[in-house]
Design goal:
The protein has 507 residues and is α/β, with parallel strands linked by helices. It folds into 3 domains: 218 residues, Rossmann fold (3-Layer(aba) Sandwich); 98 residues, Rossmann fold; 177 residues, Biosynthetic Threonine Deaminase, Domain 3 (Biosynthetic Threonine Deaminase, domain 3), CATH 3.40.1020.10. Helix content is 40%, strand content 21%. It contains 20 helices and 18 strands. The chain has an 8-stranded antiparallel sheet with strand order 14-11-13-12-16-17-15-18. Strands 1-2-10-7-8-9 form a 6-stranded mixed sheet, with helices on both faces. Helix 3 packs across helix 8, helix 9 runs parallel beside helix 11 and helix 12 crosses helix 14. The radius of gyration is 27 Å and the shape is elongated.
Length: 507
């Protein structure tokens, strides 16, 4: 007989530790996608994740005897902190088994909350197997991260809060979106919402490279993935839970898949509306809401996305910022072939027109032509395609690399080569351009048409100045004219011709 989840959720013991998080309207995101989007702010929990709810409800439901013996879990992330915090609150021993590869910052976070960390195995599966052995050996109670009715019920309180907090004057809720790893969050929310308001859709969201639930639902049975993508590590699960699969198969309306770029764009969306930074898994529901609204052409609907966690690795933010604009389709990445003749650069930049250039990579290719890797700000995908056609029409062969993973991850950082021996030495200068429209055009207009640009690298970093590296071949008789050019240009610059990195790799 299956548990009565409505009763379990109504009686869940979460609020002596977990908080009732706010349901915040996201005005910028709502305006952009033409629907009312609300964020359920589980990133505001004491452990910055919804996981505290399920962990605490499970531990709080234990008998006094089992509490006295202690609990154990296997986790390298948010569940570990939830178990440690809950156990400390209830005066209970907590053993947390983590893979030996777990970053030190996560290990210390668990220890600071009172957890006894045991490092075992290279992967989660190995840590999980070790935890089961310790559970039997030391008579501890295993707290599963998702496949447990009490854990599911704890997560289900999020659905209860959403329905209570939503203001009816904003119109009925069309759909609620929840990230899926093992399925505890989505199944818990669906169990409550479908029991009380079956008209509201509950949509799960997974990444394309960790879609265990989507595949399992399609197959009618649980499917184990051979490998999973780790960017959204909080949802990187190879096999969903048995009970969570049953509930999701029965209750979910759909599962939406999103890619890494979409997750990055969603992190930026939430930051722009809240100034909070979600972890990739924590932003999946927002990415899923955007994808679902776009796919079904929704307008003026009320959508709720659960912002499920904010335990982001700081060193990942640079990658997130790099990919967010592409994920939102507000940056186009092109490979453009330019003829090696005077004025070619100037004409190319004039064709780009009012669009901001986010990146410009070029190294001399051959006497007749040059290949340029360029990033351009656009309003949407349609504008990107129009710009591509305009370049081709004006004699600039161009390839769209916006969806090319190799180009975005690697090639953009490897555009290089060596300048040919033409009898004219190459000089290398580093410039600081003001980040404003026309700055690049001003530079090109000031240059002598007789000087060859042999190298050009620029990337927008969101600062008030752009940093540019330029290689030029200036004939010796033009040295004085070149000095005047630098002075009249008015941009700070530094001679890097003798820079050892340039000499080794580009000179």
């Amino acid at each position: 007989m299956h548990p009565d989840y409505l009763q379990k959720i109504l009686n869940a013991q979460v609020y002596d530790l977990a908080e009732e998080t706010q349901l915040d309207f996201a005005p910028n995101l709502s305006g952009r996608i033409g629907n009312r989007v609300y964020l359920k702010r589980e990133d505001m929990q004491p452990v910055f994740s919804f996981k505290l709810r399920g962990a605490h409800n499970k531990i709080a439901c234990l008998s006094a005897d089992r509490l006295k013996r202690g609990v154990i879990c296997a986790s390298a992330g948010n569940h570990a902190q939830g178990v440690a915090m809950s156990a400390a609150h209830l005066g209970c021993r907590a053993v947390v088994v983590m893979p030996v590869t777990t970053p030190a910052i996560k290990v210390e976070a668990v220890r600071k909350r009172g957890g006894e960390v045991v490092l075992a195995g290279e992967s989660y599966d190995a840590a999980y197997a070790h935890a089961l052995k310790l559970e039997k050996k030391e008579k501890l109670t295993f707290v599963h991260p998702f496949d447990d009715p009490d854990v599911i019920a704890g997560q289900g309180t999020i659905g209860m809060e959403i329905l209570r907090q939503h203001r009816k004057q904003d119109g009925p809720i069309h759909a609620i979106f929840a990230a899926i790893g093992g399925g505890g969050l989505a199944s818990g929310v669906a169990a409550y919402v479908k029991a009380v308001r079956p008209d509201i859709k509950v949509i799960g969201v997974e990444t394309r490279d960790a879609d265990a639930m989507k595949r399992s639902l399609a197959a009618g049975k649980r499917v184990r993935l051979e490998q999973v993508g780790l960017f959204a590590d909080g949802t990187a699960v190879q096999l969903v839970g048995e009970e969570t699969f049953r509930l999701c198969r029965e209750l979910l309306d759909d599962v939406v898949l999103v890619d890494t770029d979409a997750a990055c764009a969603a992190i930026k969306d939430v930051f722009e509306d809240t100034r909070s930074i979600l972890e990739p898994a924590g932003a999946l529901a927002i990415a899923g809401a955007k994808e679902y609204a776009h796919r079904h052409k929704l307008r003026d609907k009320t959508l709720v996305a659960i912002a499920s966690g904010a335990n982001a690795n700081f060193d990942r933010l640079r990658f997130v910022a790099e990919r967010a604009e592409i994920g939102e389709q507000r940056e186009a990445v092109f490979a453009v072939t330019l003829p090696e003749k005077p004025g070619a650069y100037r004409k190319f930049v004039s064709l780009i027109g009012k669009h901001g250039i986010t990146e410009f990579n070029y190294r001399y290719h051959r006497p007749s032509e040059a290949h340029v890797y360029v990033g351009i700000q656009v309003a949407n995908r349609a504008e990107s395609l129009r710009l591509l056609e305009s370049l081709k029409k004006h004699g600039y062969p161009a390839i769209d690399l916006s969806e090319d993973e190799t180009a975005k991850l690697h090639v953009r950082h490897m555009v290089g080569g060596h300048v040919p021996d033409t009898g004219i030495d190459e000089c290398i200068y580093r410039f600081e351009f003001p980040e404003r429209p026309g700055a690049l055009m001003h530079f090109l207009n000031r240059m002598s048409t007789g000087w060859n640009i042999s190298l050009f690298h620029y990337r927008n970093h969101g600062a008030d100045t752009g940093r540019v590296l330029v290689g030029m071949q200036v004939p010796p008789e033009d040295t004085k004219k070149f000095r005047c050019f630098l002075e009249e240009l008015g941009y700070p610059c530094w001679d890097e011709t003798e820079n050892p990195a340039y000499r080794l790799f580009l000179g």
